[in-house]
Amino acid sequence: MKNSNNILAEYGTTIFATMSALAQEHNSINLGQGAPDVDGPKEIREVAAKALIGGPNQYPSMIGVPELLKAVARHNKRFYGLDVDPNSEVVITSGATEALCACFMGLLNPGDEVVLIEPLYDSYLPIIRHIGAIPKLVRVEPPHWELPREELEAAFSEKTKMLVLNSPMNPSGKVFNDDELAFLAGLVEKYDAYAVCDEVYEHLVFEGHEHRPLMTYPGMRDRCMKIGSAGKTFSLTGWKIGYITAAPALMKAIMKAHQFLTFTIPPALQLGIAHGLEFGDDYYKTFTQEMQDQRDQLAAGLREVGFKVLDTHGTYFLTCDFSPLGFDGDDAAFCRYITEKAGVTAVPTGAFYQQDGPSHFVRFCFCKQPSLLEEAVRRLKDHFSD
Q1: Rounded distance, CA 279 to CA 230, Å?
Q2: pLDDT band at 11 (very low <50, low <70, confident <90, very high)
Q3: CA–CA separation, 172 vs 352, rounded Å?
Q4: Structural domain of 256
Q5: What mean pLDDT, rounded, does the chain reach?
Q6: Looking at residues 341-351, what average pLDDT do you find?
Q7: What are the tens digits of pLDDT across the range 231-264?
Q8: Quick check: 17 pLDDT over 90?
Q9: The predicted structure's pLDDT at residue 16
Q10: Alpha carbons 212 and 209: distance in angstroms, whole number
Q11: Beta carbons of 19 and 33 less than 8 angstroms apart
C-alpha cells in the first residue's frame, strides 16, 4: 500500500480527544474539553427548530443566508464600529476551524512564511504545513505571557505572507492590549502581510480588559480576516457555525477555498444564530459575567487545593502551575495522574507548543455548571489532602 499524506501522518490524535477518552474511561470530570455542559439560549434553538420544520432545507447561498450575513455585519458595527458590506465582506463557515482553513488555503502558496505565536490552537500548523507554507514560531510563556517584540520582528521578513493572531488567546487567557496590537499592526503593514485573526472568544473578556480587533487599527482594514464563532458566543459548539469578515479582495480568495471545503451551511442553524446576534446588551453582559463568576469559583478552589493559578483575562480557560503540589513528572503525566487518581481531567499546556514547552502547567476549563466545578474541586482536595 502507498503511503498516506506525509504531513498529516506526523500528527496523532489531538490532546483533547485523548484526554476526553481517558476521562470517559475513568468516569472523570472533564475540565479539559473546551465545551460548555449546557446548551445555549432556548430562543435561538426554537428559531432554528421552526426553520427546520418550515423549510426550506435546500442549499442556501454559498456565502450564507441573508439574515445571518446582515446580522454579522451589524454585529461588527455595534461592537467595533466597523462598516461591513454583508454581500461582499462576510461568509458563513462550518465553524471557526473551516474559517481558518479557508483563509489559509485562499491566501497561502507553498514557500510563503507565516508568523504564529505559541501556544497554538492545534489546527493551525497542520493546515499551513499541508499547503506547503512555512511556519515561523514565536512564543509567549507562562506565567506572564509577555510578547517578545525583538523575536517577533526577527520572525518577519520579505517572505512573510501572514500573521496568525489569536486574541483572546487559547490556552493562555491572554487578551492582547492596545500597545501590543499596534506593534503587530505595524509589522503587518511594514512587511506587506495579511493577518488571520482568530477572535472566537471575543465576548469572553473579563473585568478591566477589552477586546479590540486588529482590523480596527490604521492600515489593517484591508489586511485582516476576522473570524468569529457562534459556538463560543452562544454555547452551541455542536452547531459549528463560524463567520469571516474580510475586505472584498481577500474574500474573493477565501471563497474559492470555501466552495471546495463545505460549500454551504445548514440554513436553519444559520437563522437561529442570526436571531442570537441581535440579542440586546443584557445577553452579552450576563453571558460574560456568568463565565467570569465560574472562572473565579474554579480559580479560588484550585488555589485551595494548592495550585498556583495564573490570571486569565479572556476565554474560558485557567492555566495552573502544579509544581507546588510536589508531583514528580511533567504536565502530560500530571493530567493522566489526576484523571486516574482524583477523577478530574485537565490538558497539558505543553501540548500547545511544538517542542520544549513549559512542563509544569495545565489548562482547566471553567465553562461548566457551578455544581460540577464544586465537585471537581472537592475531588482534587480529597486526593491531595490525603
Answers
A1: 13
A2: confident
A3: 10
A4: 42-280
A5: 96
A6: 96
A7: 999 999 999 999 999 999 999 999 999 999 999 9
A8: no
A9: 82
A10: 10
A11: yes
Q: Is 134 exposed, middle or buried (0-12, 13-18, 19+ CB in 10 A)?
A: middle
43 to 40, 49, 234: CA distances (angstroms): 9, 10, 11
Query: Which cell is 237 given?
Result: 459548539
Residues 68 and 34 grouped into a single domain: no
206 and 328: one domain?
A: no
Clarify whether residues 101 and 200 are in a common domain. Answer: yes
**Residues 274, 168, 309: CA angle, nearest 5 degrees:** 130
Domain boundary among 255, 280, 305: 280
Task: Please give the model's pTM, rounded to 2 decimal places.
Answer: 0.96
- The DSSP letter of residue 42 is H
Amino acid 120 reads L
- Clarify whether residues 19 and 101 are in a common domain: no
Say if 181 falls within a structural domain: yes
Q: What is the CATH number of the domain that holds 312?
A: 3.90.1150.10
Between 370-384 and 281-305, two packed helices, what is the crossing angle to 10 degrees? 10
Residues 148 and 260 in one domain: yes
Longest dimension (CA), the chain: 62
Q: CB-based contacts of 80: which residues, under 8 Å, 6+ apart?
A: 212, 213, 215, 216
CA 63 – CA 92 distance, rounded (Å):
6
**pLDDT (average), residues 54-65:** 97
Q: HSE-up of 353 (CA within 13 Å, CB side)? A: 18
Same domain, 319 and 226: no
Domain count across the chain: 2
Which of 250, 280, 310 is a domain's end point?
Answer: 280
| Residue positions counted in the chain | 386
CA gap 278, 282 in Å, rounded:
11
Question: Are 193 and 265 in a shared domain?
Answer: yes
Average pLDDT over residues 119-139: 96
Q: CA 244 to CA 199: how far, in whole Å?
A: 10
Which grid cell is 353? Answer: 507548543
Cell of 241: 457555525
pLDDT of residue 13: 78
- Helix, strand, coil % over all residues of the chain, rounded to 5: 45, 15, 40
Whether 321 is in a domain gets the answer yes
**Structural domain contains residue 1:** no
Is 54 in the same domain as 201? yes
pLDDT digits 0-9 by tens, 156-182: 999 999 999 999 999 999 999 999 999
